[in-house]
Each structure stands twice: as C-alpha cells, then as structure tokens.
Amino acid sequence: MATIDKKKLKELVKDEKCYKQLLSLLEESDPGLKDSAEIITQMKEGFSNFFWYVKNAETNEFIFYSDSVEKITGYSYSELITMPGGILSLVHEDDFPSVKAVFAELMSDDNDEAVQFDYRSLTKSGDVIWFRSTVYTDRDESGKVINLKGVSFDITEFKENEMLLEREKQRLANLNNSKDKFISIVSHDLRSPFTSLLGFSEILLHENELTDHEKNEYLEYIYEASKTQLQMINYLLDWSKLQTGKLNIELSRVNLKGMLSNCISVLTGAAIRKNIEIHMEVDPNIFIYADERLTSQSISNLLSNAIKFTPDGKQVSLTANRFKEGMVEIIVKDEGIGISEKNQAKMFRIDEKFSLLGTNGEKGSGLGLTLVKEIIEKHGGQIWFYSQENEGSEFHITLPEAKNIVLIVENNPKQKEDISNIINKDFPGYKIVTADNGYEAISKLAHTIPTLIITEHDMPLMKGNQLINTIRQKFSHNPIPVIVLHEDAKKNIKDEYLNLGVDLFIKKPVSNSKLLEMIKEVVF
Fold this sequence. Notes:
- The protein folds into four domains: 6-154, PAS domain (Beta-Lactamase, 2-Layer Sandwich); 175-244, Signal transduction histidine kinase, dimerisation/phosphotransfer (DHp) domain (Helix Hairpins), CATH 1.10.287; 252-400, Histidine kinase-like ATPase, C-terminal domain (Heat Shock Protein 90, 2-Layer Sandwich), CATH 3.30.565; 405-523, Rossmann fold.
- It has helices spanning 6-12, 16-28, 36-45, 68-73, 77-82, 96-108, 156-206, 212-244, 256-266, 268-273, 292-308, 341-344, 368-378, 413-426, 438-444, 464-474, 491-499, 512-523; strands at residues 49-54, 62-65, 114-122, 128-139, 145-154, 252-255, 277-282, 287-290, 315-322, 327-334, 383-388, 392-400, 405-409, 431-435, 452-456, 482-486, 504-507.
- A five-stranded antiparallel sheet has the order 2-1-5-4-3, sandwiched between helices.
- α8 (212-244) runs parallel beside α13, α9 packs across α11 and α11 packs antiparallel against α13.
- By secondary structure, it is of the alpha/beta class.
C-alpha cells in the first residue's frame, strides 16, 4: 500500500484540524485512492473530483475545498466558503429534497459511518453536471455527528451515457413491440385473402353452369386480390431491404419535372377512368439528388392514393419548388375524402396498418405510406401532411436539390480560366469546380456529382479517356455527360471515348460558340 506524503498534504491544507481530518479520510479511503502523490496532484491541479470538509455538521460550516472545485464548478474556494450551505447550495432544485434527506438520515442514524449518492448540481455558467459524493462522518462518544468530510466526483459523462443507453434500450423495446405487431398484422393480411381466392378458384374449376357474367366477376375478384397481394409483398420486400441496408440507394442527378411527368403518365389511365384532372406545376430547371426508381415509386404512391380517394370529376395537383437551403419540396394535393383525426395518428406506422377503400372501391395494401416515409428519410428528406375529412389531403415531401456543377479538368491555367469565364457569363447559376489532373478530379467527385465534365484529353499522370473510364465504373448508374478537349485525337482514341459513351469533342483552340452549343445540348 502506498504511503501518504504528509508533508505535501500539510503544505496544501493550512488548517491543522482540517489537515488531520483529510489525512484520516485518505488513510481510510478504498484502494483506488491509496496513491497519495496522485491524490494530492488531483487536489491541487484538479481532474474530475474534489475534496471538501465540514467543520460543524449541524451548521454545515464548510471550511475546505480542494483547488479542483473551481475547475469543475466554476466557483472558487473563496466564493464557495462564503455561501450558506457551501457546495450544497449548488444542488439542482429537483434533487435538493433527496440530498437533504440523505444528510438527515446520516445525522440521525448512529451506525452510519459513510453514505454515497448521486445528484445534479449547477455550475457558475448555469450548466447542469452530475456528482457522485461519498460522505464520511466523525462522531463523538455518544454517536453524534461532529464533522463531515467527503469526496465528490464529476460523473456527468457517465450519466449522459447511462441516459443515452436507457433511451436506446427503450427505443429498441418499442421497435421490438412494433415488429411483433407488424408481423401479426402482415401474417393475417397475407393469409386472409387466400380463403376467398381458393374458394372462387374452386367454383370456377368445378361449377359448369356458371354464366359468363359470373365467371368474369369471379375472375376480376381473383385478379384484383392477387394484384393487391403482390403489391403488398413487393412493399414488404423493399421495406425489409431498406431496413437491413440490402437495398442500395443509387443517387444520381435527376430532372424533377421529367421524373414527375413520368409518374403522372403511369397513372393517366386511372385518372381518366375517374375523370380526374392532374394539374402539374414544376420549374423545369430543378434537379434533385436521388435514386430515381425509389423516388418515382414514392411519388407514384402518393399520386395513386390521391386519385384513389378523390371522387370522380375532381382535381389532383402536383407542385414542386425550392424549399429551404439545398432542399426541394414536392406537394401532392387532392380534393378527396380526407383523413379523420383518429386515423391520422396511424399514418406511416408499421405497427398500425391503415387502409381505406377508394371512392370507387379501390383497395390498397396499407403499407405504401410506410415505405414512402422510409425512402424519403433515407434520402435525408422529410414527409408530412395536412388533411381534413371531406375536404381533401395535402402531402409534402422534401428531397435534396442537385445544384448545377461543371467540373473542368484542365492543366493549362489560361484555358481553365477561359472556359470558366464562358460558363459564368452564359450560365450564372452554375457552380464551377476545377482540377489540374485526373487524380485530383476523382477526389473532387467523392463529394459531388457534376452536371457536366469538361476534360482535356492529353494530361499528365492520367489521360482523359482513363479518367472517364474510372468515372464510368464509379458512377455506372449515372452516366455524367462529358465534353473532351483535344489537340488532334486519333480515330482510335475517339473510338475509346465513344465506347465510354462520350461523343462530344472540341479541337483546340477552343471555340467559344462551339463550347456553348455543346453545353446547351447537354444541359437542356
């Protein structure tokens, strides 16, 4: 066991009685505090603990604090020593009753020599910190407490981690309960239609006297029920893949108006059957940074629901515009039956299946909106809605905007500047990113996907065709347009570019009009 350096302790603590009490505390402390050199360093310089001493337990007359108290609480020794109640005056108001009760029990119980407790305290700057204090007693012959001595540890980080762990534990418990409910709902929904499907199939197989009308009616039911079940299974598969990370989100730069037009065209038949007009208002120059397939699936789901729950002859609108910095907002609005307050709480929840029949009896799986929410949030966006019964619904989603970026890969500073000036003049909203060579260009692509790449062919370290080959492999799902600048590229070199999907070449010196013509061809 390490010996206590009494000389250092005496230098630190001037008061004779206080010195003896602290010496006693150190001698009685548990093995983790036996190294006196370390303890005294902590007392003087301050780590995560401080020592204190109460001369009169009845009056709470604090006469000593180690220097480290100021580092932890922000209050100096001289400030604390003048406070009524000393360090106890800093105890958080919500924890003060329990701390007071601990001291009262310690004073009244003759057998208690020490007690340990946790509580919150306020620093001088108003921050909340957690302490774990161990208090030791000195008693007279009758057992009455005379003096108190203690050590307090800053356990704020420990408590924060403990609370974080508790919240995570609760989240996982809720998730597990949701999963159990979800499995129960899905297993019921997957089984229940098959009784009718098998029943109608059996009638069709064995009843020879059915009319053509009856046969068509049964076949139509089988077809619609099978289609709904297949949709449900597809949603389940996509949802589970997103949850487990097995469904890759392949981000690319997508023209928003073009994508939304495709979503509308797919649903035009359903809209015509109900005489519903779909009105679209979208800026053609907005691009988003998204997985086109998954995003189209999400918007088509919202549009399909809008058509499904809107009576014949009404209107559905699809609008989009720039939202907050870097985001685009898409709104799907209908004049349909709306959603009751009771059912609004069930929206997007995997453990609360919510499904209504459309105005013409259309059915749904009840899982579409859950998948939409999952897809939008995987893109870093949000989804919310406003709805009132018999007045319609309005669904909002946000997605990251893809800014127009031109990557110029050119090792000639003058040429690079000239091209930049052309773009700045005719395309003022475009951002320009430059690189001196292919390796630098690839590193720039780690942080952004450009609208267009303009590259010199004959560069040091990596030729233009080698650069494009690397880019095509990296972004196989998103063939970024490329314009190649060259001195006099041979046919075999041009053929290599053509095989990489590049057919735009400009021979140096660069013609401004030719470059502008090609950029417009690519961008518009």
